[in-house]
Amino acid sequence: MIPVPGFEGRRVAVFGLGRSGLTAARALKAGGGHPILWDDSVSSRMQAEAEGFAVEDLTTADWTGFAALVLSPGAPLTHPKPHWTVDKAKAADVPVIGDIELFARALAALPAEQRPKVVAITGTNGKSTTTALIGWVLKQAGLTVHIGGNIGIGVLALPAPTPDAVYVIEVSSYQLDLTTSFAPDVAILTNISPDHLDRHGGMEGYVAAKRRLFQTLPPKAVALIGVDDKAGLETAHILGARAATAGRPFPSVEAISTDASFVPTGEELVAMRWTLAELGPVLSDEGAVPIADLTAARSLPGRHNAQNAGFAYAAARALGVAHDAAVRGLMSFPGLAHRMENVAHLGPVRFVNDSKATNADAARQALMSYPTSFWIAGGRAKDGGIEDLRDLFPRIAQAYLIGEAASDFAATLGDTPHVIAGDMATAVALAAADARAAGGDQVVLLSPACASFDQFPDFEVRGEAFRAAVLNLGATPFVQG
Q: Is the pTM of this model over 0.85?
């Protein structure tokens, strides 16, 4: 646990007692604060009381006595409308913060020579893979690494800071909205595409939330920006222009692209040190000099994973990891479950679990990774469905549609071969039979382009259902290593 100082003897309201809320309460208490907890769920309040926390109805509390409100990232800050606790906090002039901000304040309270390094990753897609990949590369290089935040362990539940440690933290747009002083040493934006727009009042608010990662970077920090989408490229230009006109030391801004022909216009971009060749996943340093052929990295297929590798390599080098060690880490990465995960094979037919692809942009990266695939898609569709994937329909040998979106996806696919399978087990069985009948090396790809909530509680359960259906066919599991 990371104790949070600065609230000694003061009352701090904590709303939302999920993973981040309870962890924040423990960290505040360990730092000498008096957290006052509340949740709409009776069972959550009972759990807090069982741990010895003060539980008080915040609807009737005296808010003038609170030093801060620590808000769960699941509660809306601004849209569709502010949570009632936010209204009460603002009326009493109480700051509204989150667990990432508490983490930032805990590190800032340490003497400079005792502070660990922090790598923070955000973006619409790829942030979990990039977070895990960076953590893996740094660990393989012998560093003391703690991985958490929006992935795995809540940030305040990670081990207490030591000077030799590196925290690799995934941060969501919800968490960033609740920060004011978070200042990582390496800040990474993987990409931006429309997502969670209801919580941010539209695309402009969503992009602004992502850019908050760069608002208080220290002068020696490194900002790594994915520039293969419009919002990312604009972000890089904004930060580069800010650096050029600052008149003082400013964080280095580096662009990460999968297009080797990308050339920044003007002098707004301070540096474009890392690029990725468009033809083949070859990581390049300073333009055209190849430094690693990722073809043999089985857990990093596709152009999007080449970009993730670029982020990991650049982050590792920024933290002093030698070139050879960084490349070894990339090549040995075992991958993450439900993210382009090789699950099993039936002879030459490979089954790939990309259940984390909950929107069309994520599914695009998966479909682009293979010349052709037998594609399992569907669930609860996001705005726009799969219309934006139309240019990739020629890569689809056949689609197998499940869930609420099946009929709409079928209409969009039109003449592209498809069948409404309905459920996961049926889709897997049909896709496997067709892939085997096609002969040769084939890929059955689960990349739903949808949320899972119509048939499954989350993408992980959906991915496990895919895995179970595949193994029930007698497929041989892939063993990492």
A: no
